[in-house]
Amino acid sequence: MAPKHRSPASTTPTPSSASHSSPTSTTPSSSKSSSSSKPNTPTHTLDAQQIITSIWRKYLSQTPQRVKLLDAFMGFLVVVAVLQFIYVVLVGNFPFNAFLSGFSATVGQFVLTASLRIQTNPDNGREFADLSHERAFADYVLGSLLLHFFCVNFIN
Amino acid sequence: MAATGGDQLLRQATSRNTRGLLRVIILALIAAAAVSSRLFSVIRFESIIHEFDPWFNFRATKYLVNNGFYSFWDWFDDRTWHPLGRVTGGTLYPGLMVTSGVIYHLLRFLTLPVDIRNICVLLAPGFSGLTALATYLLTAEMVTSPSAGLLAAAFMGIAPGYISRSVAGSYDNEAIAIFLLVFTFFLWIKAVKNGSVFWGALTALFYGYMVSAWGGYVFITNLLPLHAFVLICMGRYSPRLYVSYTSWYALGTLASMQIPFVGFLPIRSSEHMSALGVFGLLQLVAFTDYVRTQLPSKQFQTLLRALVLIIFVVALGGLVLLTVTGVIAPWTGRFYSLWDTGYAKIHIPIIASVSEHQPTAWPAFFFDLNMLIWLFPAGVYMCFKKLTDEQVFVVIYAVLASYFAGVMVRLMLTLTPIVCVASAMAFSQILDTYLDARSPKVAAKEEGKSDSAKLAAAAVLPEGLRSTRSPVVGVYAYISKLTVVGASLVYLLLFVLHCTWVTSNAYSSPSVVLASRLPDGSQHIIDDYREAYYWLRQNTPDDAKIMSWWDYGYQIGGMADRPTLVDNNTWNNTHIATVGKAMSSKEEVSYPIMRQHEVDYVLVVFGGLLGYSGDDINKFLWMVRIAEGIWPDEVKERDFFTARGEYRVDDEATKTMKDSLMYKMSYYNYNSLFPAGQAQDRVRGARLPAQGPELSTIEEAFTSENWIIRIYKVKDLDNFGRDHQSATAFEKGHKKKRAARRKGPRVLRVE
């Protein structure tokens, strides 16, 4: 694990990973890279760094711009959630309602965005055959509206 | 019955539109049947709120209608749990009251001024019609056969298991909760099928509504994650599952936290942790799934499984650790009693004392579900045959609900919907097979048993019947068809008869008003409860505190409108134990307790004269047990049993029993109704002692017509500062002493 490429590479899987546990999300990527290195490189095992860079390149080249936008948004949400969590750990959770609604707003928005990403991803066209992108986006807006209504109501 | 009739009609109807119209008409008829079969109690008695809890809901609804939503939300009720009071707005499930409040205002807006009481009485039947509709929708998602949905709706409409909690006047949370339960499940299935945020959000919305309506929402909270988890374990993970589950969980949890009574429970209590765990698990699974599409690999499957397993174990360990360290609230007692039926009796008598928390007796299943109970396994088996995502749900639901229904009587309610769905699937399979097979049969006869006819029949028939097809006298014979269809018709008719009989005989009694038959067969109404409560309302000051066992707290609050010490909310065990102690102790002990709690009147229910078995002497042991839980040194259950371990009220009753306030209040003056030495308790079939009990600290204030309710007034402190015993002794002894004095001097004079 060379430190050079580690940081940009590890941010790539994170946006689409679990929202609440950033340490666990790096575990699969690293463990997977070590085990899946065999089929990728039949002759001799490469180190993890190269695999991650190859994933990163593949991601950059093959992902549509829209999906990248969603990924960036999801990454932002994870950062916000982590920040809130750190704040609670350091300062204390006095207005617990406020923390909860803030945190769950990020989690909920993350999940909804992930759903939108899954639904609009052309790879999943088989699963969502009768779901147009516009419909998916309308659902997304509805879900977000509900989510933020509940959060604002809960924040006290 | 309507469904079967309609079923045959459906076969004849050719065009799609006609079928759709017929379906609507049939559903409307089923809804009408569901509503009307719940009206027995209104017709027999009157439009009245039943039982105990509904009286509180009714009172809260009146408060909501009169004072508006916000003051209802912040309602602090100082007329219950005297002197503690109760933060009612924050400790109830407001869904029911808000629903009827909305209906009330809507009707008024439409210039239909309907009394709020009538809305409350008829709310449960109204929603049962909707439940039948929701069951239709749910079943229609499960199978393609349209008749299954209609059958399920008809079953749901008249199944006694559901009627028991939704007759007119039974204004309880379950009235709307079962509808919400079924409808939430329908939306969930729809969401899983379509993988749409829209349906997921709708599921969350109705889940939120359900949370606001009934504590049984925990059933949904655990069933949906379990469904998702089983699907993942079966290797059926799909992006659709991710979308539906996460959108439900993220929105639904927030929605449930809006209810003050639930509050932070979804992240604090263990009951909700499975949902959170599956949520986290799904994130991981989705992520790994995504990575897999980026990096196709053969070893990936095994890696994924191992990863999921490890994370699951780690999460479970973390949960256990958090529970042990106390960050997450441990399981509640009511939950423990779900796994260990003996738990409540040992640790929390107050939960065990409620009859609806007792384990179910076996005949109750047949009584409440009749033929559905044996069709039910067949339906579940049919789910195994195809096992799509939604049929996995049926299987899980069936297993869980059967277990819970066996543990707690009231949970029969959650079992009923799935029994209706599963048995309708089985039944419609039978009907479809034996009614559909008619057309290939006709063709076969015309063509003279040619092979082509057999092929046509094979195309129509389901797979499982192929083996029975080869003999000529198989299922095609008219005789077999007639037998099966005729038998199912008879079963259906019997089912309808049974349901109607059960509803009219077992579940339509308001229990506030009792009915009995006179020798000439005419109905005699025993209205002691209302008589007594009305007496309280008319003859006592507005703030007179009434002490009674907690069963009657809500009724006193609702009908007599007087403050009570304890009521059916049972949130404070110590307070209830205090009342139990006052009831089960000697007068000298009880009097200070009653003075401390400013009790003005004591109310007991006594069925000895009429043979009414649900009276306080029969509940007395629970009072003793609950009191013993708090004061094991002062109240002992053993003392209330005779040396031979019998619970007796006659001559052989123990001294503790005879001295207890409850015994005295029940039998005070009872002797005077009978010739000397003939006093008889008709509930316990016991002859009472010739000498009735004496009371000194309280005095009889009111006894209802049939002696069911007896009200005593707590005496004020004595004017001369004596204790009441010596005061009464003095009152009685006064005459004796005077007589003795008269005698005394005479004796002296003689000497």
UniProtKB/TrEMBL annotation, chain A:
InterPro entries the UniProt entry points to: DAD/Ost2 (IPR003038)
Keywords: Endoplasmic reticulum, Membrane, Transmembrane, Transmembrane helix
Domain of life: Eukaryota
Pathway: Protein modification; protein glycosylation
GO process terms (BP): protein N-linked glycosylation
CC terms in the record's Gene Ontology section: oligosaccharyltransferase complex
Chief site of localization: endoplasmic reticulum
Chain intervals with Low complexity compositional bias: 8-44
Transmembrane segments: 69-90, 137-155
Subcellular location(s) per record: Endoplasmic reticulum membrane
Start and end residues of each stretch annotated as Disordered: 1-44
Membrane-protein topology: Multi-pass membrane protein
Record text on subunit structure and interactions: Component of the oligosaccharyltransferase (OST) complex.
Family assignment from sequence similarity: Belongs to the DAD/OST2 family.
Role description: Subunit of the oligosaccharyl transferase (OST) complex that catalyzes the initial transfer of a defined glycan (Glc(3)Man(9)GlcNAc(2) in eukaryotes) from the lipid carrier dolichol-pyrophosphate to an asparagine residue within an Asn-X-Ser/Thr consensus motif in nascent polypeptide chains, the first step in protein N-glycosylation. N-glycosylation occurs cotranslationally and the complex associates with the Sec61 complex at the channel-forming translocon complex that mediates protein translocation across the endoplasmic reticulum (ER). All subunits are required for a maximal enzyme activity.
Listed name of the protein: Dolichyl-diphosphooligosaccharide--protein glycosyltransferase subunit OST2
TrEMBL record, chain B:
EC numbers: 2.4.99.18
Requisite cofactors: Mn(2+); Mg(2+)
UniProt similarity note: Belongs to the STT3 family.
Keyword Transmembrane helix recorded: yes
InterPro entries in alphabetical order: Oligo_trans_STT3 (IPR003674), STT3-PglB_core (IPR048999), STT3_N (IPR048307)
Cellular localization per UniProt: Endoplasmic reticulum membrane
Superkingdom assignment: Eukaryota
Protein name, UniProt field: Dolichyl-diphosphooligosaccharide--protein glycosyltransferase subunit STT3
Role noted for this protein: Catalytic subunit of the oligosaccharyl transferase (OST) complex that catalyzes the initial transfer of a defined glycan (Glc(3)Man(9)GlcNAc(2) in eukaryotes) from the lipid carrier dolichol-pyrophosphate to an asparagine residue within an Asn-X-Ser/Thr consensus motif in nascent polypeptide chains, the first step in protein N-glycosylation. N-glycosylation occurs cotranslationally and the complex associates with the Sec61 complex at the channel-forming translocon complex that mediates protein translocation across the endoplasmic reticulum (ER).
